[in-house]
Each structure stands twice: as structure tokens, then as C-alpha cells.
Specification:
48% of the residues lie in helices and 14% in strands. The chain has 212 residues and is an alpha/beta fold.
Length: 212
């Protein structure tokens, strides 16, 4: 990771380890970018993060994957690690995606303020899906827990789902964000304005990063 300064603060060994494991894209953006994807469990957050990551030079930070891989005690504890990673990467004009965060309005405001601190552009994407499809996805996870863990996801019981849903503060018209229905076949169409803007931004990048 040429050019990436590893954190030297005491207690950030985990941040250093995770940064060392990341596949840093060789292309930087003209301006750093931070995208947060939030929504109910099985609403398609991880799949959408992968969809964007396959099309643009983003570093995808998945809450579930980081928590499972490194044994972190909770989602909020994992989010703190993700922000510590972003503190190190955004100054290098990288693009980051936070997958699975921002349940509350204050969480989402934190992301916007954090991005502004790093002079980064920020976008929030709220994933939804038909409730019957969400329940089908939840059942598929429960029916094959080994495959679920291999995919770096959690089995979520109906009771746990209801508890998470109670924490989610639904966005309203006062919040600027993208809505994506992952039960639709038109994800690309739903995100056309965003992807068009990203394509224009990456076309202005003239500073490819060297790879070891």
C-alpha cells in the first residue's frame, strides 16, 4: 500500500492489521469519496456494496465481515474501527464504502460530518426490499448457517430482526440520500445519476497509485 500511512497511535493495532489486509485500488479519485449503505437486515446492503465495488475503485468495509473476522463485540464497536480506517485512507483520495451502518439519523449525520472533515464527497444509500423477499433471505441464512458465516454474514432470528428494525430511524424528505429497492431488477437504473457522477469523477483522475 504505497503512500498509505499506517496508524501509529497506541491501541490501533487492529486498524493497522485491517488496513494491511485490504486490497487498495490502484486508482485514486480527484476528491475522496465516502458512501454509507444502510437498511434493514437482508435488504441487500452487502450485495449493493459489492455491485458498486465491482464497477468503481472503492474499498468496501463491511460491518459484518470485519466483526466476524476480528471478533469484535458489537456493531458500534466495529463502526469505530471502520471510522479509524477511514481516517487513514481518505486523506489519500481513496473511495470508501461503509456497508451496514447509520441506523439512526445521528449516525448518518456523523458520516456526513466525518466526510466533510476530510473534504470528501459523501452519499448515503438506503436499501429496501419487499418484506416477503427479506423474510425469504432471512430463512435462507437460517437454513444454512455454515454458508451464511462463509459469506461473512449473521443468522438473524425473527426476534433479532424485529429488534434491529426498532432501532432504524427511517429517513424522510429532509435527508438527502438514494433509495434502492434491491427486490427490483433495475438497480442500475435506480442509481444512474450517482453512477454517472462517479464515472465523471474517476475520468478526471490522473494519479494512478503504484502497486507493489
Amino acid at each position: 500500500m504505497d503512500g498509505i500511512t499506517e496508524p501509529s497511535h497506541k491501541g490501533l493495532d487492529l486498524t493497522r492489521r485491517i488496513i494491511g489486509s485490504l486490497n487498495i485500488p490502484p486508482i485514486t479519485w480527484p476528491q475522496p469519496i465516502l458512501i454509507g449503505i444502510f437498511g434493514l437486515p437482508c435488504s441487500g446492503k452487502t450485495e449493493l456494496a459489492a455491485w458498486l465495488g465491482a464497477r468503481f475503485p472503492f474499498v468496501v468495509l463491511s460491518t459484518d465481515a470485519i466483526r466476524l473476522t476480528y471478533g469484535l463485540p458489537s456493531g458500534p464497536a466495529t463502526h469505530e474501527v471502520m471510522y479509524a480506517i477511514a481516517d487513514e485512507l481518505l486523506p489519500h483520495n481513496l473511495g470508501l464504502i461503509f456497508d451496514g451502518i447509520h441506523a439512526s439519523r445521528s449516525d448518518r449525520e456523523r458520516l456526513r460530518e466525518f466526510a466533510a472533515k476530510h473534504h470528501a464527497t459523501s452519499d448515503l444509500i438506503y436499501t429496501t426490499a419487499n418484506l416477503s423477499i427479506i423474510h425469504k433471505r432471512l430463512e435462507e441464512r437460517a437454513n444454512d448457517p455454515d454458508a451464511t458465516r462463509a459469506q461473512m454474514k449473521y443468522v438473524i432470528t425473527p426476534e433479532h430482526f424485529a429488534r434491529i428494525a426498532s432501532y432504524l430511524e427511517l429517513p424522510d424528505n429532509s435527508e438527502m440520500l438514494w433509495y434502492v429497492d434491491t427486490s427490483s431488477d433495475s438497480i442500475a437504473e435506480q442509481l444512474t445519476p450517482l453512477t454517472s457522477r462517479l464515472n465523471k469523477a474517476i475520468a478526471r483522475s490522473h494519479h494512478p497509485r503504484s502497486q507493489r
